[in-house]
Amino acid sequence: MRNRITEMLGVSFPLILGPMRMITLGEMAAEVSRSGAFGQIGASGLSGERLRSELHRAGRLTDRPIGVNIPLYRPNAREALAIAIECGIKAVTTSAGDPATFIDKIKDAGLKVLHKVSSVEMARKAASAGVDGVIATGFEAGGHIGRQQTTTLCLVPQLVDVLDIPVVAAGGIADARGVLAAFALGAEGVELGTRFIATKQCPVPEYFKELVIGADSDATMLLGKEAMPIRVLKNKASARIKDTDRSKEDAKLEASGEASYVQSGGDADTTIMPCGQIAGLVKDLKGIEELLSELSAGCRSLSRKLSLLFNEES
Ligand SMILES: Cc1cc2nc3c(=O)[nH]c(=O)nc-3n(C[C@H](O)[C@H](O)[C@H](O)COP(=O)(O)O)c2cc1C
Q1: How many structural domains are present in the chain?
Q2: What is the CATH number of the domain that holds 115?
Q3: pLDDT at site 228
Q4: Is residue 161 domain-shared with residue 59, that is, in the same domain?
Q5: Is 215 a domain residue?
Q6: Among residues 168, 157, 123, which one has the least CA distance to residue 16?
Q7: Which ligand 1 atom sits nearest the alpha carbon of residue 42?
Q8: For the chain, what is the radius of gyration of the CA atoms?
Q9: Is the CB–ligand 1 distance for residue 99 below 6 Å?
Q10: Nearest to 193 by CA among 46, 308, 32, 65
C-alpha cells in the first residue's frame, strides 16, 4: 500500500503505534516497526539518557524506521528532539503544545512531523506552522484528549476537507472495521493506543491488560476536564480524583498521572490507567505481529466485501 503517510514514514502499512507514556519503549516500538507499521517511543516521562538508550535498543532490534513522540509542553521537549535528531530519527510526532515553537529545528534537521490535534482550528494552525500532517485525536481516545469533545468520526472528515496535508485518525480504532472506517472518512493513516495495551509485548502490569480485555463500553471516564482532559479506566483511583475538590493545577498534575500513573507501581485500585472507549471491543491478548497481520488481512477482506456490496447496490 502506498500513500502520503507510507511515503512519509517509510512503512508498508500506514498504522502508527500510539505513543504511551513510559509504555511504548524501545522493544515495543521495534516490534511494531518490524511488523510493517510505524513504532514510536514516547518521550514523556523519560530522562534524556533513558530515551537515548531506548532508541539504541530499538535500533539494535530493527533497521526499519521508528519515531519519537514529543509532548511539547513537557520540560524535556527540546532535549528529546535533540536526541531524536542525534539518533537519526526521520519522523517525529508532537502533541500538547504549539508546533511552531520547534518547527524550524525539526525542518532544519530534515525530519517529518505529524502533530496531534483535536479541532479544525488547531489543525489549521499546525498546518500553517508547517507540519507535514496531523493526527486527529477524537474524544473517544485513551490518554489526553482535547477539550473540544469532538469524536473521531466527526473530526477526521472535517479536517480532510480543509487541509492539504494528510490526516491520520486516532481514537476508537481497534480492528479492521475501524481502520477502513477511518480511510472512508479520508484519513491516510491510523494511530492505535488502547488495542496495543492488550498485546503480549506491552510492558504494563497484567492487571491493566486484564482490565482492558474485560472492559465494557462504559469502562472509561474523563479526568481533568477543566485543566487537561485525560480518558482513563474507571477504578478507585480515578473515582477519588474525580470526587475530590481540587484546584485546577492539582487536577492537572494528578490527572496527567504524575503521582499515580500505572507505570509508577501500585495496583488495579490505586493506579491511573489511561484507556480509550474502544477497550470494550478488545477481547483478547495478541502478539504484535499477529495483531498487525490480522488487521491488514482484515482490511483487505472487508474492503472486498464493501466494494461488492456497493457495486451490487448501484
Ligand atoms: C496509556 C496511554 C498513554 C498515553 N500516553 C500518550 C503520550 O504520552 N503522548 C501522546 O501523544 N499520546 C498518548 N496517548 C494517546 C495515544 O498515543 C493514542 O493517540 C490514543 O490512545 C489513540 O486512541 P485509542 O486509545 O482509542 O486507540 C496515550 C494513550 C494511552 C492509552
Answers
A1: 2
A2: 3.20.20.70
A3: 82
A4: yes
A5: no
A6: 168
A7: 8
A8: 18
A9: no
A10: 32
In this prediction, residue 249 carries a pLDDT of 53
Does residue 235 sit in the same domain as residue 113? Answer: no
Q: How many CB atoms lie within 10 A of CB 269?
A: 11
The sheet carrying 15-17 orders its strands as 15-17, 189-192, 167-170, 133-137, 112-117, 91-95, 66-71, 39-42
In short, whether 224's Cβ falls inside 6 Å of ligand 1 is no
296 in a structural domain: no
| Residue 175 in contact with ligand 1 by CB distance below 6 A | no
CA 244 to ligand 1 centroid distance, Å: 25
What mean pLDDT, rounded, does the chain reach?
Answer: 93
- Domain, as residue range, for 229: 220-274
Residue 138 in contact with ligand 1 by CB distance below 6 A: no
Record the cell numbers describing residue 312, joined without a space.
451490487
Overall average pLDDT of the 264-283 stretch: 93
pLDDT of residue 253: 55
Q: Residue 229: CB within 6 Å of ligand 1?
A: no
- CB-neighbour burial class of residue 232 (10 A; exposed 0-12, middle 13-18, buried 19+): buried
Q: Do 61 and 196 reside in the same domain of the chain?
A: yes
pLDDT recorded at residue 294 = 98
